[in-house]
């Protein structure tokens, strides 16, 4: 279950246990609005669930639409369907340094495959390095087994620390969980974003990117090459929908593919990063893989903009230096929607299947907004 502490005006004013019906959600929102300062929007103040990292990522999420509730309910249902291994896999998939949006969290959680959960071992009741080391020895879980006569003298804590570090393990409320021996590469492949089919006269190799140095060395060895760029790229596929159609398939170097894979992983951690990239590709229509990579590396030159013309008008004013207090003051005396509509065309905003997008350095050629643009 996903439990939300809801706030208004900076203080906690209610709690919501998800999944929940739309009526219950609206009742709590009305209660928070009534108890808080005028014109306040309820937000998530705290999250209580089996993935502690979610508290930070979902904090300050605005509870101002039915769509947001639907996404939160969907996330709660996904979490309810996960075992300890799945929850741990989700916690490791979230960026610990960059706060991710509700959309990003839901996408990551929804794409965790059942096979990913098989990569982990769970040891119930083991909650410290000392207990872990003792359990490993008593269950002959180590490659180097200690004779019975030496076991009372072993440093169980050091054994536990080494094992936990080697298997990226952690201690949760119910016990220890970590990656199974031999499954680290499988976990990395589950988290890959780009797959290459490489070939030489002697062999074929299927490479999931990003890849560890060990996997890259394995590829060289199996392909009988000293440099992976000596291999022919016979195929490129992506885990993100639409990229196969938007990025030319003429990738000529493995290094370019590695660079794009790293960019795509970074985009996964950015709010709407992959959606923006798809929108830009649809407009820019790169003719080569190298051009698509250049767009990925310079993606900060683009931004998605609001679909609502009134909201875009307010965004234009914010770019000009107006703060929310100024905008609230002139609300009712200014036609934000007309300003937004005019600015959409002047700023070269383009409509795509993935939303509205604009280029910051050199706007796209202006077109009359409202027509199909791409």
Percent of sequence in beta strands: 15-25%
The N- and C-terminal alpha carbons lie at a distance of: 43 Å
Runs in which pLDDT lies below 50 for 5 or more consecutive residues are none
DSSP helical segment count: 17
Describe the protein:
With 374 residues, the chain is of the alpha+beta class. It has helices spanning 22-35, 54-58, 66-80, 84-93, 102-110, 114-117, 129-138, 156-166, 184-190, 213-223, 243-246, 254-269, 273-284, 289-297, 309-319, 324-330, 336-346; strands at residues 2-8, 11-18, 43-48, 120-124, 170-172, 175-179, 194-199, 204-209, 232-238, 302-305, 350-352, 355-359. A 3-stranded antiparallel beta sheet has the order 2-1-3. β1 (2-8) and β2 (11-18) form a beta hairpin. α3 (66-80) runs parallel beside α5 (102-110) and α12 (254-269) runs parallel beside α14 (289-297).
Strand-helix topology:
Elements: E1 2-8, E2 11-18, H1 22-35, E3 43-48, H2 54-58, H3 66-80, H4 84-93, H5 102-110, H6 114-117, E4 120-124, H7 129-138, H8 156-166, E5 170-172, E6 175-179, H9 184-190, E7 194-199, E8 204-209, H10 213-223, E9 232-238, H11 243-246, H12 254-269, H13 273-284, H14 289-297, E10 302-305, H15 309-319, H16 324-330, H17 336-346, E11 350-352, E12 355-359
Antiparallel strand pairs: 1-2, 1-3, 4-6, 5-6, 7-8, 7-9, 10-12, 11-12
């Amino acid at each position: 279950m996903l439990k939300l502490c809801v706030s208004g005006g900076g203080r906690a004013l209610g709690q919501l246990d998800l999944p929940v019906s739309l009526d219950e959600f609206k009742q709590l929102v009305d209660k928070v609005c009534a108890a808080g300062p005028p014109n306040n929007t309820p937000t998530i103040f705290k999250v209580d669930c089996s993935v502690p990292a979610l508290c930070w990522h979902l904090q300050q999420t605005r509870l101002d639409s039915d769509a947001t509730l639907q996404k939160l309910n969907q996330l709660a249902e996904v979490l309810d369907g996960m075992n300890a291994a799945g929850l741990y896999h989700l916690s490791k998939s979230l960026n610990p340094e960059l706060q991710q949006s509700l959309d990003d969290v839901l996408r990551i959680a929804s794409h965790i495959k059942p096979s990913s959960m098989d990569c982990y071992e769970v040891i119930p009741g083991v909650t410290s390095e000392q207990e872990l080391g003792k359990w490993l020895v008593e269950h002959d879980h180590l490659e180097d087994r200690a004779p019975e006569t030496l076991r009372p003298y072993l440093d169980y804590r050091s054994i536990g620390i080494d094992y936990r570090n080697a298997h990226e393990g952690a201690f949760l409320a119910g016990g220890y969980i970590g990656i199974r021996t031999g499954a680290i590469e499988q976990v990395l492949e589950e988290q890959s974003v780009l797959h290459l089919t490489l070939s030489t006269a002697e062999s074929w190799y299927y490479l999931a990117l990003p890849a560890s140095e060990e996997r890259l060395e394995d590829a060289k060895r199996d392909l009988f090459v000293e440099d992976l760029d000596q291999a022919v790229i016979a195929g490129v596929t992506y885990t993100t929908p639409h990229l196969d159609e938007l990025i030319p398939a003429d990738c000529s170097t493995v290094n370019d593919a590695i660079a794009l894979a790293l960019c795509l992983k970074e985009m996964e951690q950015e709010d709407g990063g992959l959606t923006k990239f798809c929108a830009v590709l649809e407009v820019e229509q790169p003719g080569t893989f190298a051009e698509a990579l250049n767009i990925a590396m310079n993606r900060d030159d683009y931004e998605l903009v609001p679909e609502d013309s009134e909201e875009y008008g307010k965004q234009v004013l914010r770019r000009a230096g107006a703060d929310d207090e100024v905008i609230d003051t002139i609300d009712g005396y200014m036609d934000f929607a007309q300003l937004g509509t005019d600015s959409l065309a002047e700023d070269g905003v383009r409509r795509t299947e993935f939303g509205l997008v604009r280029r910051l350095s050199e706007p796209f050629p202006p077109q009359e907004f409202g027509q199909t643009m791409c």
